[in-house]
Structure formats: C-alpha cells, structure tokens
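hey can u check if this looks right to u? its 371 residues, i copy pasted from the old doc so theres a chance i mangled smth
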Amino acid sequence: MHYIQTIFILLFLLISAQKAKTQPFTFENKGKIQNLQERMTLKKVNGMCMQIYRNGNLDTTILMGYADREQKVKVNEHTLFQIGAMSIAIGNFVLLKAVAQGKVKLENDVNDYLRSWKLQTPQNQVVTVEQIAMHSCNFAEKDKPKGYKIGKKVPTLLQMLKGEKPSMYKAIKLLPGENLYSFDGYSSPLLLQQLLEDIYQMSYAQIVEKEVFEPLGMKETFVQLVLSPEQKKIAATGYTHEGKRVKGDYRQYPEAISSGIWSTTSDYAKFVLHLYAAAKGENNTLISKELALKAIQMEVGKKRALLFGVGDSENNYLGGASYGFRTQFEGNVKIQNLVVVFLNSHENWQFLNIDMLSAAFKYIEQKNQQK
C-alpha cells in the first residue's frame, strides 16, 4: 500500500514544474494500453483531484472526471470532498494545540478532562489521553463510521457515547487488553471529540474553525452535517463501488472528528505542509517543533505517529473513506514533498494505491528515457 513512499523523491525531481490538467499515465489491461480516463472508467472512478507539491510548493494539478456525472459538472481545484478518516489527524492536531496551551496533558487520565460523560474502565484501569489519540485501547466498537442517510435523524455526541437511539452503534465499551488493529475509526475519536468539547466548551465545528482552519487559511474546509445550497454547488457527489450515485449525494457524519470534514486537496495540503514546516523549526506559530515531530514521527514501541501513519523517519501517509468518497495523502517531511488525492468513488483504494503508483513508475521511466 505504501510503495509510493519510496518513489516520491524521484517523482518530484523528475516531473515538470509546469502545472497540467492531465498527465500521460497509461495502464496495461489484457494486453491493451489504456489512458488515465479509460482506466478510471474501468475501475468506476467518477472524479479525481490530485495535487503534487515539491519543496512545499504546488507543482502539478491533475483534474479528471466529474464532481457530478449526471449534471456534467467537472472536478476542479475547488471541488469539495468528504475526507473520511483524514479528519482524525485534524482532531489530534487540536489536541496537541491544547497540550501547548496547557489545557491537557497527554500522560493524564482521560477521565480527568471528561465532564459530560465518563469512561468506565475494567478493573479501574487508567486510560491516558495519549492512548486514546494513538488508538491503542481495546474498544468493542472499532469499525469506521457508516454515516446516516440524508433526511434521517442523527444522534447527538452523548447519544453515540451512550449507545442511545438514533445511534446505530452500541455504547462505547472498553475491553481488557490492547487494540491489536492499531487503528480505531469510531470509539477513540468519538471519545476525543467529547474531551475536546469539554475542554474548549464549544462545539467541535467551532473548535476546529478557531484552532485550525482560520489560522491556516483553510477557507474551503469545514465541519457540516448537511451542506447548504451554496456548499452543495461546489461539492462532489458520492458514488458507490458500482459507480451508482449515492442516495442523497452523500451521508451525514455526526462523528465529526472521524469523518465529518469537507475539504479540498489544496486546503488539506496547507495542513500537512504546516506540520512539516513546524517539524523543521521553520514555522512554530501554532505548534512547537517538539510536538510537531511527535505528530508525524513514530516513537519506539508505537505503531504509528500521533497524527499520521509512518513509512520511515521521513515519509508518512493517511487515507480516508466516507460513503461515496476515498482520499489519501503521501508525503516526505525532509524535502516537504506531498501528493494529495481525492476521489468521489467509494473505497476505491486499488485505483488510488495500485494504479496511480504504477502510473507514477511508468511516468518516471518515460522521463528518464527522454533525458
């Protein structure tokens, strides 16, 4: 899945510095060569926005397909996508800011900060804030959020924690032992969302706007259950595995910290690149170099960094999936190279991680042959 990390440096050094609408990516299928559009059609990928950054600056934008196929609205740089679990990194970033502001300590018991609801632990087990952020606790509910259909009543945060209707999940329950899966897309983030709301005494949407989106200039990023008519005009429509339009065009995610953020590739790049700059000590206005390194580098004995997955000391990644959408970024902190790819195609990880990787290798080979 993460082979792309090994080729980023070559890719960024070899690609043209000129922006382009398409790239000459080709694929082999049953002995025939396909272009990118043909491959997208075969894999039922409706629309894609990919942005490649070199040395922290935008180098190439690739726009393919439709934000709304039926209305013939094409994907552009400002198309909004639901970013799924890529939302979690933003929540953990807020947590690190709260640490810097002296509002919370990672090593403390999570129940020290929870006000509206308390975590019941087996045998008086102490669960630290960092354990929640690192997804290392063994919660009964580990699945990623499924989303609520447009028009359906959604639960409040407390109703989800307690497992009360209309929540589709059972109450948050901690089991003995560790989380062997190393990632929990529902329970841990939900608990962290409640912790942050209790600390800041405002809604999660207000918290991330104040602490992240506004200071980083992420003007096209927000938390929203139901899009306004103006937002709907620039938002991508979600499509299923089979390429069918999602009923209602997308789903509601009251688990805002897990899947509730809408964004653009360029806005998400601002978030990642700010962390890269902070980790290098180049911009520590929002977060210290020490905390930025903790966010993106894996510590001994850990399975991931606090915000991202880690390939090695320099490369990291994160992906997300909400119903009808699939997103991912891969980056290199040392030279601040970054690729962000958003699709309005449900769980199409093969296209994202295998097809585009193969295309990148072929593209590099072609560039080498031209020299």
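Residues 3-370 form a domain with the Beta-lactamase fold (CATH 3.40.710.10).
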